[in-house]
Each structure stands twice: as structure tokens, then as C-alpha cells.
Amino acid sequence: MGQRRNVLAAGLVALASHAVAQVGSICPTTDVCFKLNIPENTASSGDGDIFFQISAPDTYNYVALGQGSSMSGANIFVVYTAGNGNVTLSPRLGTGHSMPQFNSDAQVTLLEGSGVSNGKMVANVRCSSCNSWSGGSASFSGGNGNWIYATKQSGGAQDTTSQSANIDEHDNHATFPWQYANAKGGNSVNPFVNAGSSGSGSASGGSGGAATSCVPRPAGAAVTGTATTGTATNGGSSRATSTKTDDDDDGSHYGRPTNFPSGWTRPTARPTGNPWEGYDKRALLEERQEVNYCDESSDPSNTEFSPISSGNAGNSQKMLIAHGVLAALAFVIFFPTGAIAIRLASFTGVVWFHAAFQAFAYIVYIAAFGLGVYIASEQRMLSETHPIIGIVVFVVLFFQPILGLLHHVMYKKHHARTVWSHLHLWLGRAAITLGIINGGLGLQLANNSPRAGFIAYGVIAGVVWLVWVAAIVLGEKRRARAAKDAHLARGVHAAGGHYAPKENGT
Q: How many domains does the structure of the chain reveal?
């Protein structure tokens, strides 16, 4: 009877622990798992410490978990082996498609249970600065948040204690929403120390993962399989060797054991009074014991790792492609063609053809610019060189029609170039050159273009730029020749007259 009361007490303690501490677990692959605990105070205020666990095979070069919807502006935590059974936690800031840099301002602590064992590297982390960082912020009072992860399987273990060690581009990565409902609760100083710090995790299927809620097993609670005493930590709880079940239910459909423990004596009378009246005490106890302990991490019923919708990713990719194509057409085809025409063509109305063609090119660029600003804003990349140059070029081109009109009017009046002429000419040349260069920077920033794409763009843009420069040189020579002829003819200006000088050739 006393033994049965102990089992009942363990079940009640387990039930209470579910309200005290929850750990949300998600595994993007069968080898990589992340766990999260948002303490009750943090969940209610939206601000405060959070706890997370990162685990991956110790043969990986690194594994990383980050807050954010893209690498740019993300709050990233990189874990790699440090040698001697230890791990290195490297907090970093994402800066686009370049290596994240070490963030010395991050307030993070490696907790007990971190290290390398049984083929896994595990980092149990307390983060006190995950609400705000340079480039972003997060609140934990809501129902979910955007996270990212990345792994580098190849390259071998790092085995370094340097938090600013160089890391190569990841092999796998994804952005995913983490549902916080299963991770909120408790005020533990280390919710993972009793939560199976091996961090092995598991998932059904070759590419699926687990998204589960679990609680640390309280001291004295029954475990499935053979419990090993091991080294007691934070309360001395024992560790289980089997996967998740309903504690003492291995042999029965309703969770009842097939054999009673030694010394078990069936009671001869049922307790009376509420809340037990009219219930099967064992069934109620077993129902209460259906707790998902963190040391029973394999739960085939939970296999939902949901990266950000592929449809959304597909739309973003389409917008990125459209932005690149439109911008390339504007600066590699349309703007240079219009500029070459005004230099080499001599038909009637060439000035207005030039103006109309450049206006069309600008409209194309407006569409590319709008897409680019939207993409850069969504991915927090407006501080990158590519979007900054794009904005500068957009502003410069906005004034080009006005300067071009002033150039034309003043030239017709003075029969010579004025300051407006030079502004129009040189700002246009600078804008086209910057636009062509910026296309290459955009391909570099996207970081997903094939090498052939880089080469093709570079060759085509380079050839067009050289042809355009040759047209400028040839046009200036023609203008000089026209100036000389006009000087000799005393008052006769070159046909077309747009770039013809005064009689004195100036």
C-alpha cells in the first residue's frame, strides 16, 4: 500500500511539474534538435531570460540557431566543438550573405550539461539579451516567433575555443516559426539539466522532425525501462534508457502493467469520498502519468517541423529574379542604348527619341527599385551596399529629366553647353556606371546565382559599357569636328545642332 502511495505521489508530482516547467523541442533533422524554455515571468512580460538547447553530431563543423526571418539582422548562436569534451558557444550577428561576426554584447551563459558525449555536442544556454540585439528584437509574450537554423556537416570538428573563429558557408539551413505554447512555463535556472542533456532528440522519417512539449522528470518519478542512477544533478533524478511511453503502461492497452511489482497487495477496500468516488484509482493515476518527460524524447506522433512556407519562399525568389532582370534590362540595355543613340544617331527628332527611351528605361528601373526596396526591407538588408547604391542611383535618375530639359533649352538659347549640360551628362554617366556595377553586387548579395550567371552578366555588361564609352568618345570627336567646321564656316552650325558649339568652338 505504501509503495502504491509512492507511485501516486510521483504521478501527482509529474502532473505538477507539467505546469511548472515546459520545454518545447523541434528537430529539423533526425540528428539536429533544438529545445526552448520561456520562463513564466518572461512569457508574461515578454522580456527576460530564455533558455535553449542546441544539439548536433560532434562530427559537424558547426550548428547554429538564430532569431529572425533571414540571416541578415539575425541574432545567431553558433556551436562547435572546443576539444577535450567541451563546446564553444559563439553569439554572432547576421550581416547578410557574409560570415556572421562575433557579438561581444550578447549576454549568454553556457549551463551545466553542455559538452560532447555519446557522439553529440550539446549547448545548454541561458540568454539574457534575446529580446533585443543590434539589428532586431523579439517578444516572448506572443504565440510564436521566427527562427532560423543552419548546419555545416563537412569540414570536420572545429575543436577551438575561439568565439570568433572563421566558419564556412552552411550546407543546410531553413527559416521556421517556433510555436511558444509548448515552451512556456517554469522558473528553472536550468530546465535542461533533468531534461536529457544528451540532446539526442529524434524524429520519424528521414527528413521530418519533432515538435514536442516535454517536462523534466521529478526526482522519484517512475521511468520506463531500466533506470540508471548515474550522477544525480539538480535534484538527483535518474535517467531512463528507453523511449517515450506512458510510464508504467508498457504491457497494457490502458497503460496498466502486465505484472504487479513484487510485494504488491491488492487493497480490499476502495477509498471513499471525493474526488475518488466512482473512479478506478489506477486508471486515474495512469491517466495523470501520461506526461511527456524530456528524457523520453522520441515521440513518433509529433513529426511536424515546418519551415517557412515554400510558397512564400517561392514568391520571394520570383520577386528577387524579377528585380534582377528588370534592373539589368534598365542599366545594361535601355539606358546605354538611349545614351548611344544621342551620340551616334543623326535623324530628325533624335533628341526626343533619346528622352522618350530614357524615360522608358527609368520606368523599368522604378519597378525594379520598388521590388528591391521591398525585398531589402523584408530581409533587413537596407544597410547593405547594394540597396544603398540602388537608392542613390534612383535619386540621381529622378533629376535627370529635369536636367536634360534645362540642358536642351539653354543650349538652344546659347548654342553652347552650360552647367546644366555638364550636370546632365556626367550624372547620367555616373548613374549608368554605378547601375551596371550594382548589378554585380546584387548577384553577390543574393549568393544563390550560379557561377555561369555571374560570368554571363559580367561579360555582357562589360561589353555594353565599353561600347557605350566608345560611343561617348566618338561623339565627342564628332562634336569637336563640328566645332571646327562651324568655326571655318563662320556661323554655320552642325546638322541636328544639339551638341553643336558656338562659332568659336566652345
A: 2
